């Protein structure tokens, strides 16, 4: 399949008041200009953008593809299909596969699988393990992983408890690629899946305090300042962490951070009825935490959005709460769910473009479309008025584990294009 010459006409663009036309050819942006109803473009495939929102395709800096080794949860083909349906062109996948992505052969395998399944995108960017086997005892061969195609390093899922090891990992990675840390004190109710507070007490669940996250955030900030080496903080979920990050940025610390749609949209009230679909790590927090995260994202204290897409098989969630796996499947629904915050006036479409497309690509040096001539023709069309119900059948991911199951959403990605190739088209037969 080759890139098409596309003309998306009469479309809304975040940050611009006038309707626009987008022209692409040879997989690149030709121009984004005010809508011209009289323009004759016979050499372009015309796409009517009336009533739709045009955005650059999204970059997810934190997803779990599960392959190799856990293909019953997800595989690279199904994960990238879900990414295409969600409007993503770039997917960064964590190293907690089986075997762990701690040597170049695993990285190359993942890239081959992505190319075979989706030769025209979305693109897969593996994240290499920070330590061998994610065990936190010896550094992974990061230079080898970088050469094989990794774009960052992380022990996500298994936070590095040994501060000396983490320091050496940051120093080693400094000249290679960013370090992403899962901020959780591993001794404070690790993986409990419930926030320690009124809700966990009401349900009689073991809870994890927000201090468990904040302690690790503080450690990483201090190391980043001491070493003058950047660190990226994964899936921030609480106000205490936001306050630490804000203070660090005021001092000029080389720190960036992400949060996820579920932390902006849900609270630990979702656990009522012992709903394992809402069990995630770090856990859903309080409404005060949720509102603090929205403010921090809008202000740039939290730099980016990421899904932390964590697909699981049904039997891994249909168990007693304490036994259920942590994680929410989020690629299919990320943009549609976030649009509720746009309708509420808490975020703008431009906020979403900045935090879910431009800034993550900037931090991790990935391809990005800012709609300048020559940029990659990576874009999505979003219908903000399309109402649909989240069902297992509507999700492309193998992972159906989302608290949104059975709920209506308003807003849907109708088209995703990567380098001028249509990789998702809701209007296509069988879509």
Walk me through the structure.
The chain has 431 residues and is an alpha/beta fold. It has a single domain (57-364), classed as TIM Barrel. It is 29% helix and 21% strand. It is built from eleven helices and 16 strands. The chain has helices at residues 76-86, 104-117, 142-148, 163-173, 198-203, 210-227, 239-250, 261-265, 287-299, 334-343, 349-364; strands spanning 6-11, 20-25, 28-34, 45-48, 53-56, 58-63, 88-93, 123-129, 152-154, 179-181, 231-233, 255-259, 304-305, 379-389, 408-418, 421-425. It has an eight-stranded parallel beta sheet. Strands 3-2-1-4 form a four-stranded mixed beta sheet, with no helix packed on it. Strands 5-14-15-16 form a four-stranded antiparallel beta sheet. Helix 4 (163-173) crosses helix 6, helix 6 (210-227) packs parallel to helix 7 (239-250) and helix 7 (239-250) packs parallel to helix 9. The longest helix has 18 residues, at 210-227. The radius of gyration is 21 Å and the shape is globular. The two termini are 18 Å apart. The model has no long low-confidence stretch (mean pLDDT 97).
Task: Give the tally of β-strands.
Answer: 16
Average of pLDDT = 97
Name of the CATH architecture: Alpha-Beta Barrel
Supply Rg: 21 Å
**CATH homology-level superfamily:** Metal-dependent hydrolases
Main sheet: strand order: 6-7-8-9-10-11-12-13
* Percentage of β-strand residues: 15-25%
The parts where pLDDT drops under 50 for at least 5 residues are none
Helix percent reads 25-40%
Domain count, please report it.
1
Largest sheet: 8 strands, parallel
Order of helix and strand elements from N to C terminus:
EEEEEEHEHEHEHEHHEHEHHEHHEEE
What is the helix tally?
Answer: 11
């Amino acid at each position: 399949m080759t890139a098409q010459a596309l003309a998306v006409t009469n479309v809304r663009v975040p940050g611009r008041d006038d309707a626009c036309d987008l022209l692409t050819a040879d997989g690149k942006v030709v121009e984004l200009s005010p809508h011209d109803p009289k323009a004759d473009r016979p050499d372009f495939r015309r796409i009517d953008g009336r009533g739709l929102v045009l955005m650059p395709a999204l970059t997810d800096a934190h997803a779990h593809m599960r392959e190799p080794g856990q293909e019953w949860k997800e595989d690279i083909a199904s994960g990238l299909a879900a990414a295409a349906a969600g409007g993503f062109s770039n997917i960064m996948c964590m190293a907690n596969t089986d075997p762990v992505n701690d040597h170049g052969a695993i990285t190359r395998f993942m890239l081959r699988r992505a190319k075979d399944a989706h030769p025209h995108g979305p693109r897969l960017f593996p994240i290499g393990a920070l330590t061998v086997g994610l065990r936190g005892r010896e550094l992974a061969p990061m230079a080898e992983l970088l050469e094989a195609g990794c774009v960052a390093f992380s022990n996500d899922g298994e936070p590095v408890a040994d501060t000396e090891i983490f320091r050496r990992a940051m120093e080693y990675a400094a000249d290679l690629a960013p370090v992403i840390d899962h901020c959780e004190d591993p001794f404070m109710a690790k993986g409990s899946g419930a926030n320690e507070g009124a809700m966990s007490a009401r349900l009689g669940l073991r809870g994890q305090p927000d201090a468990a996250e904040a302690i690790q955030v503080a450690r990483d900030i201090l190391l980043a300042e001491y070493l003058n080496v950047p660190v990226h903080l994964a899936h921030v979920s609480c106000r205490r962490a936001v306050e630490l990050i804000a203070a660090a940025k005021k001092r000029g610390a080389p720190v960036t951070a992400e949060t996820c749609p579920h932390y902006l949209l849900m609270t630990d009230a979702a656990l009522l009825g012992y709903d394992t679909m809402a069990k995630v790590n770090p856990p859903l927090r309080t409404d005060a935490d949720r509102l603090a995260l929205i403010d921090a994202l809008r202000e740039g204290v939290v730099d980016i959005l990421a899904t932390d897409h964590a697909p699981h098989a049904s039997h891994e969630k249909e168990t007693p709460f304490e036994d259920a796996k942590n994680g929410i499947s989020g690629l299919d629904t990320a943009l549609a769910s976030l649009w509720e915050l746009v309708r509420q006036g808490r975020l703008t479409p431009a906020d979403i473009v900045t935090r879910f497309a431009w800034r993550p690509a900037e931090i991790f040096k990935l391809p990005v479309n800012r709609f300048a001539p020559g940029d990659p023709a990576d874009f999505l069309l979003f219908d903000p008025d399309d109402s649909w119900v989240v069902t297992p059948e509507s999700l492309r991911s193998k992972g159906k584990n989302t608290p949104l199951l059975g709920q209506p959403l308003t807003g849907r990605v109708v088209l995703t294009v990567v380098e001028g190739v249509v990789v998702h088209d809701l209007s296509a037969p069988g879509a």
